[in-house]
Amino acid sequence: GAVVSQHPSWVICKSGTSVKIECRSLDFQATTMFWYRQFPKQSLMLMATSNEGSKATYEQGVEKDKFLINHASLTLSTLTVTSAHPEDSSFYICSARDTVRGAITEAFFGQGTRLTVV
Amino acid sequence: AQSVTQLDSQVPVFEEAPVELRCNYSSSVSVYLFWYVQYPNQGLQLLLKYLSGSTLVKGINGFEAEFNKSQTSFHLRKPSVHISDTAEYFCAVSDQAGTALIFGKGTTLSVSS
Questions:
Q1: What is the torsion angle, in degrees rounded to the nearest 10, for the CA atoms of residue B69, residue B70, residue B73 and residue B79?
Q2: To the nearest whole angstrom, how far is the Cα of B105 from the nearest Cα of chain A?
Q3: pLDDT per residue over B4-32, tens digit each?
Q4: Touching check for B42 and chain A: CB below 8 Å?
Q5: Is A51 at the interface with chain B, CB within 8 A?
């Protein structure tokens, strides 16, 4: 099946610094990618929808200035956690659906990024 | 608005026993339903999906699910579980081809010998 690659798989950063997470669709094009956040033992909460060539759409309660999303090409979306704080520590997962084919498909998920802010 | 309810947060079973993980959804339009499995510190892997057609859907690893429109349910079943099936299982729904999936809270399946 289709592959979505997410990098890095884990990162530890100091409070106040910024961290960039990349999400790539390796064998298909995705005009839209999705970013989720998952707290321990909890479900995936949609943070934002990343649209190629335009601004991301953020879910209610998600700070767009803190979680910067860039979708510069049909195969790459990035999430930058700016001025990270310990409460931003979480598991971040990206997802993409093969929208170019036009058919209804499942969403393919990256491996996730474990962010720890110390 | 769509929503998904997974009725059981934890399901402990013994190896080789059957299991059913329950999922109910709400949506005002046509739905597409999915079950994903997640192992610790990993992304999600698709088990099966219902897009249209036959209401009984067969997936990987011996799992199957049945779409029941009248009961707005999409329960996941396996006739005989293995230790390796221990994981977190998520039911998800979307109403259009390109939109984000909305997830239930997940069910932890624990299989013991």
A1: -90
A2: 5
A3: 999 999 999 999 999 999 999 987 677 88
A4: yes
A5: no
